[in-house]
Amino acid sequence: MNHDRYSDDYIRGILDECKVIAMVGASANSIRPSYFAMKYLLEKGYRVIPINPGQAGKEILGQTVYASLADVPEAIDMVDIFRSSEAAAGIVDEALTLNPRPKVVWMQLSVRNDAAAAKAEAAGLKVVMNRCPKIEYGRLSGEIAWAGVNRGMVSSKRPTLSVGGIQRMTLKKDGNLS
Q1: How far apart (Å, rounded) are the C-alpha atoms in residues 171 and 17?
Q2: Percentages helix, strand, coil for the chain, rounded to the nearest 5?
Q3: What mean pLDDT is predicted for residues 159-174?
Q4: N or C, which end of the chain is more exposed by having fewer CB within 10 Å?
Q5: How confident is the model over 68-87, as pLDDT tens digits?
């Protein structure tokens, strides 16, 4: 697969299919990007499991922190890597030992490891590199346009808000709420 570009359908399919995300490198520090991403994904209905050996046994945003992927007591759909490109190889190796295996390995912005990606894909996993699921979710739902980000089109149509005025995106191309 070409990891320089991903189709909207590929990203949409991953975000729609995955419900349990293990965030490797999650931080309890509220000014860290992993904290923002975790908070956002939790608010959108995902189950996010923080992985951070230094915080194991504690909680981040009300979620129990685990030291490693192997310590997580439930099936993981996606491994979201908030670590360096070099560290991604070991994380992919650990993910491939899980039973059941996750469906997706997602490497955050500026994280790219082509060898680790090839290994994951050879084992049947989908891979995304140098992207953020928080940003992709907002982009595909139309929510990111609320912040004034130029989508390259003019429209007065806003995404439909759910009960309580919270944006719950649909990843379906037809626009029907899911």
Answers
A1: 10
A2: 35, 15, 50
A3: 58
A4: C
A5: 999 999 999 999 999 999 99
CA atoms within 13 A on the CB side of 90: 8
Number of other CB atoms surrounding residue 176 within 10 Å: 7
Structure tokens at 133: 């699921």
Residue 131 in 3-state DSSP? coil
Over residues 83-96, the mean pLDDT reads: 98
Q: Tell me if 110 sits within 8 A of 82, measured CB to CB.
A: no
Q: What is the 3-state secondary structure of 133-151?
A: HHHHHHHHHCHHHHHCCCC
Q: Return the bridge partners of 21, or none.
A: 48, 78
What sign for the dihedral angle of Cα 50, 139, 157, 169? negative
**Among the listed residues 28, 32, 83, the one whose alpha carbon sits nearest the alpha carbon of residue 60:** 28
Task: Return the residue matching tokens 């979201």.
Answer: 80
Q: Which of 48, 88, 45, 46 lies closest to 65, judged by CA?
A: 48
**Residues in Cβ contact with 170 at an 8 Å cutoff, skipping those fewer than 6 apart:** 141, 176, 177, 178
